[in-house]
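quick one: PMV bound model?
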Amino acid sequence: MRIGKGKAIGKIILMGEHAVVYGEPAIAIPFPSTRITTTIEETVGEVKLNCYCYKGLLKNAPDKLLGLKTVIEKILEEFNRPLKNFNIDIKSTIPPERGMGSSAAVAIATTRALFNYFEKYLSLEELEKYSSISEKIVHGNPSGLDAAIIMEEESLYYIKGESFEPFHINLDGYLLVADTGEKGGTKEAVSDVKKILDRHSGKILLINQLGEFTKQAKEYLENNQPIELGQLMTKAHEILDQLTVSNPTLNKLVKVSLENNSLGAKLTGGGRGGAMISLCPTREAAENISKKLLENGAKNTWIAYLGDEFNES
Ligand code: PMV
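yep, here:
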């Protein structure tokens, strides 16, 4: 029996979400603690999909899988192959709709699996093309950051429409990621930020400020300045909150982090739910903060060391 496989990892935006939509830089890092594997298996008949939110015929998949479904149809069309005689199985440890890159990762893992199954060479340009087809359906007007980080699997300094710059992280600190358990609202948050900026042109200064933070954050990440980075993260969260991107749950988890010796904390990704991040000075501190966050409603946490070895993970 013929089989094709494709993988993709999750991502975390450290700084610059939302501002990146307006041409400011953002920093995202790969987050291999979470990943997606797509397996294509030969069979006879209509294509069936088995994934975290749906099990059944691909043609009847719910609207929230429209991005993925469209990518699969486009690839088959391009290969000039009928959409039948294989099944798609998707296993994921990236929680969906949490701003951790699940939608881009699912499109990328599945594109890789289909190219592998049909024994076709997949260039980076093609991978980008298919992931952006899906991201446009899922997010409306994506900056492309998610797709770039998940394809590259390197820490990126990213400006929309320009080439992205991989860079080396060297920070003696632990990144704690916490899932609020609530779905994020990237599309709504992006559209509401636009409305705020359309109505109050002065608020663009907040976006510019986030851009400045991202530039400084890159230096702190490269030069091992965790205390300074933590302070910036908290300030960025306050600005994102002013832009209505946060919500009470995220604010609570940020507060609990800061009360328990975090160096700084903020929401990550689109906001309005989803996930938050907390920079911790030691593993012990990270484990303690993780415990407090879980006691205060977080549904899951992950810890990653951001020292030199992070770049090899
Ligand atoms: O929630 P996520 O991880 O998809 O992040 C969205 C990031 C935004 O800057 C809010 C939007 C974008 O397209 O970059």
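The two ends are 33 Å apart (CA to CA).
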